[in-house]
Design goal:
Largest sheet: 8 strands, mixed
CATH class of the largest domain: Alpha Beta
Structural class: alpha+beta
Number of helices: 14
Shape: elongated
CATH superfamily of the largest domain: Bira Bifunctional Protein, Domain 2
Bound molecules: 5'-O-[N-(L-asparaginyl)sulfamoyl]adenosine
């Protein structure tokens, strides 16, 4: 129905005729002339409605236009330095598709109400920019894996056993049996490496995290990769290389969007520092965080550490008790496991968690029993250690958290179209 998107108008010459479509972003009337800022997915343009070009009937239609009304307009390109972007469209024909009711979102609408109206608020130029950054980051990340010999796979959402511990499981009734929403596709990816060596997936994971924090969603987008014949170090190299390229491309392609949200994002360029859990605990203590060796890094500890660095940092080899049962024990210190978290800078904290997996059947059975889990629930996962087991490693990257870091917004909720939290199930 349209001939051009708005951003294409700025390439047209004086006097050219064109038909565009969009929504009323702003409107004002001055001396009988109606000025509309029209918006589509590519940008905004000023459209001028004057009686001499439109006639009385269409002019009275233009006067009635409300915010978010949808319309198709034909007009003539007019170069004018006073117009935003140096160009405006002088309307010759107006077709109103929907005269919008009074738009409920105003300048002073509170943040919580904006989330109640997320289905409308996501038209705002700011949310639009954030979601564009998100889309660009995801595409750039997946490109890296497609270009480096990884096969894309999928895993089920309904599962029968926990990956990351029972505390955050969403339980549901599955035709009279207990089932859960998946916390991670990791175990399925581990099965798939025997067919494809290197695999990845990106799909939602679910966590019943009761606390409402700036960095938790109950449903989040999880990018996960798993690699056969790979050590913890191999895994960290893959995370680093892919994340650097994805950040760089997002920066290159989303300059306009980053400007629009006022974000000065520097894509990481140097090597990501790698520090041990022991060093992380020392840094946290120096910064006044209350932490004892053996505990997981708290949000405050992660924050303190990540503020010390300009690049994302890997923290490696945490105590066994802080990690899920599937982690391989560190051969150099059996109190620890071969794992790594990547902490984003600026106080953001963990965006990636992963490590090397237990590859021995006996060791895995022992760890499952130690955690008071039922080995029968993990029969197929154990089979992977019976038939051609290999050293292997993998990780999960929180897509929402990573985009949150890139865009520097207040909370992780800002960068997903329809956030799910303990208190939010709509829209
Ligand atoms: O729990 S993780 O640290 N690790 C796993 O689930 C592994 N089984 C992944 C794997 O090795 N294949 O979660 C991974 C990442 C974590 O670093 C966060 O960035 C993100 O997933 N994550 C979340 N993002 C948003 N909200 C919540 N609640 C959340 N939980 C984890």
């Amino acid at each position: 129905m349209r001939e051009k998107f708005i951003e294409e108008l700025f390439l047209l010459g004086e006097g050219q005729r064109v038909r565009i479509a969009g929504w009323v972003h702003r409107r004002r009337e001055l001396g009988g002339v109606v000025f509309i800022i029209l918006r589509d997915s590519t940008g905004v343009v000023q459209v001028v409605f004057k009686r001499d070009l439109l006639g009385e009937e269409q002019m009275s239609l233009a006067r009635k236009l409300t915010i978010e009304s949808s319309l198709i307009v034909e007009g003539i390109v007019h170069r004018d330095e006073r117009a935003p972007g140096g160009m405006e469209l002088h309307a010759t024909n107006l077709q109103v598709f929907n005269l919008a009711e009074d738009f409920p979102l105003k300048k002073d609408t509170s943040k919580e109400v904006l989330f109640d109206y997320r289905h409308l608020h996501l038209r705002s130029r700011k949310v639009q920019a954030l979601l564009k950054i998100r889309g660009t980051f995801i595409r750039s990340l997946l490109d890296w894996y497609d270009d480096h010999g990884f096969t894309r796979v999928e895993a089920p959402t309904f599962v029968q056993a926990a990956v990351e511990g029972g505390a955050t499981l969403f339980k549901l009734d599955y035709f009279g049996r207990d089932a859960y929403l998946t916390q991670s596709s990791q175990f399925y990816l581990e099965a798939l490496i025997f067919a494809f060596d290197n695999v990845y997936t990106m799909q939602p994971s679910f966590r019943a995290e009761k606390s409402r924090t700036r960095r938790h969603l109950t449903e989040f987008w999880h990018f996960e990769a798993e690699m056969a014949w790979a050590t913890l170090e191999d895994m960290m190299n893959v995370v680093e290389d892919s994340l650097k390229q994805a950040c760089e491309r997002t920066y290159d392609e989303c300059g306009r969007e980053l400007d629009l949200i006022g974000r000065k994002f520097e894509p990481p360029s140097g090597r990501f520092p790698r520090i041990s859990y022991d060093e992380a605990v020392e840094i946290s203590k120096e910064k006044g965080v209350d932490i004892r060796w053996g505990e997981d890094l708290s949000t405050e500890a992660e924050r303190a550490i990540s503020l010390e660095f300009d690049e994302p940092i890997f923290v490696t080899r945490y105590p066994k008790a802080t990690r899920a049962f599937y982690h391989k024990v560190d051969p150099e210190d059996n109190r620890k496991v071969l794992c790594a978290d990547l902490l984003a800078p600026e106080g953001i904290g963990e965006i990636v968690g992963g490590g090397q997996r237990i590859d021995s059947l006996d060791e895995l059975v022992k760890r499952i029993q130690e955690e008071n889990l039922n080995p029968r629930d993990y029969y197929w996962y154990l089979d992977l250690r019976r038939y051609g087991s290999v050293p292997h490693s993998g990780f999960g990257l929180g897509v929402d958290r990573t985009v949150w870091w890139i865009s520097g917004t207040e909370t992780v909720r800002d960068v997903i179209p329809f956030p799910r939290t303990p208190t939010r199930l709509k829209p």
